[in-house]
Design a protein that fits this description.
The complex is a heterodimer of chains A (about 260) and B (about 100).
Chain A lengths: L7 H5 L6 H21 L8 H29 L5 H6 L19 H22 L5 H29 L3 H14 L11 H8 L10 H14 L23 H14 L6
Chain B lengths: L13 E7 L7 E7 L3 H12 L7 E6 L11 H5 L23
Antiparallel strand pairs in B: 1-2, 1-3
The chains are: A mainly alpha (about 260), B alpha+beta (about 100).
C-alpha cells in the first residue's frame, strides 16, 4: 500500500518522537504483541513440551520488546520508560503490523504465522546488526540468535503437519492461507524507513522480501504444501490502523498496570 | 501425561535427556520428555533442560532403547563388590620418583 504513505494520522500522533524512535517503536510493538499472543498458548498447547517451547519464544519476544521500547523512550526524551509505553498507549498509538495481532487460531495457524514472522525477523535483525544506532545494533545482535530458533521451531512443525496426515495437511494449508495476506505489510517501505535507510539506522523492509520469500518457499515445498496465491490485505498497522483483534489483546495486556497505576512487586 | 506409551499408541514416545554442562566432562542424565521424533526431542530438550544455561551439548535417547538393571536384582548385582576392597588401587606404594600421578 505504498499509495497510503504518510497520511493524516502521522500529523496527530507523537509529533515529538524522532524517526529513529518511531522505528524502534514499530519493532518493539511487533515483538510485544506477538509475545502476548504467543503466551496465550501456555497451558493450552497440544503437549506440555510445546507449552514450554512457546513460553520460551514468547519470553524471547518480550525481552526484545523491552529493550526496543526502552530505546524508543530514550529517543523520545519525555521520560517514558518501557512500562509506560507498553501499558499507557491506546490501540491507535500501537504501530505493530497486523500479522502479529491476528488471533492464534488452531496450532497450525499459529505455526504458519510464526514461520512468516520469524523468517522476516531473521532477515531484519541479521541486517540491523550494522545499524548506525548502536542500541538497535546491539539488540539485533542478541535477538537474531533467538529468532533463528523461532524460525526453526515453526519450520519443524510446518513440515511435519504439512507432510503428515490428510487432516494435518489440510489444517496446515488453511493456516498458511489465513496468514499469508498479512505478510506483505512486513515489507512495505514508507517515508520513515526511506529516511532512516539514508542515515544508516534502518533496514529497508522491501529488501527483506526476496530472502524471506526464498526461505518460506523452501519450507512450504518441503512440507508438500502449496504457497498461497492470495491478494495482500491493505494493512496499515504502521500508521496505527488495526484489526478488531488488537483492542481485546491490549485490554488484557494493560489492565493490571492501568487498574493499579505505579504498582510494584 | 502418563508414561504408558505402549498402552496409548497415539501419545508421543518418551525420550531420556542427557546434558553436558559447561565444565562437565560427560553427559549427565537430566530427565525425560515426550516428543514425536528425534529432531523434536532434541528441541524440546533444549527448551526444557537448558533454559538456565545448563548445557553446551545434549543427547536424547528413546527411553525404550535403554536397558536398566532391575531393583529386584540389586543385591545380586552390587553387593558382591562390597567386601573386595583390594579392587581399589590403594594397596600400592607410590615410589618417590614418580611424578605427576
Amino acid at each position: 500500500m505504498t499509495a497510503q504513505r504518510g497520511g493524516w494520522l502521522d500529523a496527530v500522533r507523537r509529533p515529538d518522537l524522532p524517526p529513529a524512535g518511531e522505528y524502534a517503536l514499530r519493532l518493539a510493538d511487533d515483538a510485544l504483541v506477538l509475545a502476548q499472543r504467543t503466551a496465550e498458548w501456555v497451558s493450552a498447547a497440544p503437549e506440555m513440551e510445546e507449552d514450554v517451547a512457546l513460553a520460551n519464544i514468547a519470553l524471547d519476544l518480550l525481552g526484545q520488546a523491552r529493550s526496543l521500547l526502552t530505546r524508543a523512550g530514550e529517543l523520545e526524551g519525555r521520560g517514558r520508560d518501557e512500562d509506560a509505553l507498553a501499558s499507557h498507549r491506546t490501540e491507535r498509538e500501537f504501530v505493530n503490523c497486523q500479522l502479529v495481532e491476528l488471533p492464534n487460531g488452531d496450532f497450525a495457524r499459529t505455526m504458519a504465522r510464526l514461520l512468516v514472522f520469524a523468517a522476516y525477523q531473521v532477515e531484519l535483525y541479521s541486517r540491523l546488526t550494522g545499524s548506525a544506532d548502536e542500541v538497535l545494533a546491539a539488540v539485533a545482535a542478541k535477538a537474531v540468535k533467538e529468532v533463528r530458533y523461532h524460525r526453526d521451531h515453526a519450520t519443524q512443525w510446518v513440515v511435519r503437519l504439512g507432510d503428515g496426515t490428510a487432516q494435518s495437511a489440510a489444517r496446515m494449508q488453511a493456516g498458511l492461507d489465513a496468514v499469508w495476506p498479512h505478510a506483505d505489510e512486513l515489507f512495505e517501505a514508507d517515508e520513515l524507513t526511506d529516511a532512516l535507510v539514508r542515515t544508516g539506522v534502518a533496514v529497508d523492509p522491501s529488501s527483506l522480501l526476496a530472502p524471506w520469500s526464498a526461505y518460506v518457499g523452501t519450507v512450504v515445498e518441503q512440507a508438500t504444501l502449496v504457497r498461497p496465491d492470495v491478494t495482500a490485505l491493505p494493512g496499515g498497522g504502521r500508521r496505527g490502523i488495526h484489526t478488531e483483534a488488537l483492542a481485546p489483546l491490549l485490554a488484557e495486556l494493560q489492565h493490571i498496570a492501568r487498574s493499579h497505576p505505579g504498582a510494584r512487586w | 501425561m502418563s508414561d504408558a506409551g505402549a498402552a496409548h499408541p497415539r501419545e508421543w514416545p518418551l525420550w531420556e535427556v542427557f546434558v553436558r554442562g559447561r565444565r562437565g566432562l560427560s553427559h549427565v542424565h537430566a530427565g525425560s520428555l515426550h516428543a514425536p521424533d528425534a529432531a523434536m526431542a532434541l528441541r524440546n530438550a533444549r527448551d526444557l533442560y537448558t533454559r538456565r544455561q545448563e548445557g553446551v551439548s545434549i543427547w536424547v535417547v528413546p527411553s525404550a532403547g535403554i536397558v536398566a538393571s532391575s531393583p529386584d536384582e540389586k543385591d545380586a548385582f552390587f553387593d558382591p563388590a562390597a567386601d573386595k576392597v583390594y579392587r581399589h588401587p590403594t594397596f600400592y606404594e607410590v615410589p618417590d620418583e614418580v611424578q605427576h600421578l
